[in-house]
Description:
TIM Barrel, 9 helices
Amino acid sequence: MKDLQELLKELEPHHATLVAVSKTHPPEKIMELYNAGQRDFGENRVQEMIDKYEQMPRDIRWHLIGHLQTNKVKYITSWVHLIHSVDSFKVLKEVDKRAASDERVVDCLLQFKIAEEDTKYGFEPEEAYEMLRSEAFKEMKNIRITGVMGMATFTEDMEQVRREFRQLKSIFQHLKDNFFAGQDSFREISMGMSDDYQIALEEGSTMVRVGSLLFGERVY
Ligand SMILES: *Cc1c(COP(=O)(O)O)cnc(C)c1O
């Protein structure tokens, strides 16, 4: 495990944000980090995030990092800070619609499949480009795409992990140049977890999602 301040010191030269991944951990444990100054917390399950949001201090910035089902969108759009896991046009349209009823603009990252292993969720690059070119996308007023997210393959092969992070960085750059030129708000590359955040930082991560290194192993 690693001390919060120590981890923050490692992120500082990279100007990267720490999202403390608190899934499975109770509010008391989250409050220890909160009391040490941490405000960005990540959850991968909607119901768990809602429960914690309801019982915890209101100045916590909640990040959804796991798959979002369309039917759950309406429960989070009025307060979620950032959705890292937008993985289809369908879910993005629902976020836009629900955010409009909440009179909010919700920040979202597009999740890309970068892992070699067969992962279920995430855009293929071409699929995202097609979405971004569409009229339906351009008409959405209540979402703002602020960057990209990806998860590397679960492997000991750190060179493979590095290649996958480079791939995400290059998708980010392509999107920036072709779809978000001149938009300073398009700036986030959410990559890196407990085992690979140092590599992610070297490859340009602006947001690391770290759980077990801060909280200890998860017990399900
Ligand atoms: C659980 C999770 C993390 C954090 O994983 P650790 O290995 O505990 O740091 C990061 N990102 C996502 C999407 C997760 O589901």
